[in-house]
């Protein structure tokens, strides 16, 4: 056993020793070992001794710091006890090279934190003693929390001195650091050099596709995810006239795309595997749809439907149904109201449609199981001139967003009887307020024609959406979440500029 007596920092001596008098060792079987002490102009100074039982005692001294490579050369050291000192800081590589160390004690020091992976070189460690230290159990302790869960070593209880909610608790008893020690961000992943007004995503045969409506280029561009290049590339192109919407419909193993146009009628295309492209499948009656503004897909009792909201003065928003051969008009909802959007949602186990309109407040239609048609049910009062309505669920609660170009847009929650407002968002110039989520992160994207678009994030404690980030998108018309290869993306369509693809990233604050 060996030990130093005096006021030292491990790896850096406070005063230069002139002899080995301060070193005490005993035993009858030894190995060569050395410790380097560096300070000022002294680059290195080595002391060699015979260490018996490969034990090293540095107890009851005045050490405050253990620096990198403090035990260089002690390759066969098995027991290291640095107890009862005043150690506050340990460098990341302090124990580098101690591959045979089995027992380490840092008990009764002044440690409040340990650097990440400080024990990574201790491959043979059997027992670690950290008693008598109280740690700040914040993000810097996350790595230690995870290491304690994974290590095969026996480790004494690690007690917390803070934060307040963890004071005097064991680090092992902390549930998780994921919420406190991670944040998120949206960073540009890819720029698509063209304008667009809507983006839809669909999966087919384990691949992810995106359909983008480009009215100025008169295209419905279909992109696919490239698993090698890790970006979205062109797959097919459906041409048309003033295309304002491309909505994918999957029926069994068949893939259809509803292409809504302002001129020349709207059409449905089907993917032809022999041609590896989309070909025209059927037309949608021009007499029924003259100015399509939204396409909404839904399923009731295993039957496939879609509805087109018509925003013309004599518009006739219409529901279409799949009959195993094609899509045919099934129900006209109402006319003369200049509908701007349609949203399908389940309210208390019953199917509903919400229609927003330029000329009336949003109305709620309920599916009648006897007539198998939508019938008027209620309305959302005091919300005139709503451009878009979107629904989402969060923690088993149902919410909707109502977008307004002038005035405040609204977030509303279903309370078992009606939708009630929980938050108003200033939204001058807004054309879309899109809810989306990635894992347990819930967001709203508020697009503006006059200023920066804003992304809000849900605050679970305050129960409101808080401003999270501003992004610049010229005349945004839609926001769409797309996930593939364990990565999450966010498409921002632009009526006047480039279409942008942001990636949603997780940032570990403990690093």
From TrEMBL:
Predominant localisation class: secreted
Gene3D superfamilies in alphabetical order: Ribonuclease Inhibitor
Keyword check for Lipid biosynthesis: no
GO cellular component: extracellular space
Pfam families in alphabetical order: EPTP, LRR_8
Subcellular location: Secreted
The protein's name: Leucine rich repeat LGI family member 2
InterPro entries cross-referenced by the UniProt entry: Cys-rich_flank_reg_C (IPR000483), EAR (IPR009039), EPTP (IPR005492), Leu-rich_rpt (IPR001611), Leu-rich_rpt_typical-subtyp (IPR003591), LGI_related (IPR051295), LRR_dom_sf (IPR032675)
Coiled-coil residues: none
Swiss-Prot/TrEMBL GO biological process terms: inhibitory synapse assembly
Record-annotated LRRCT domain positions: 133-182
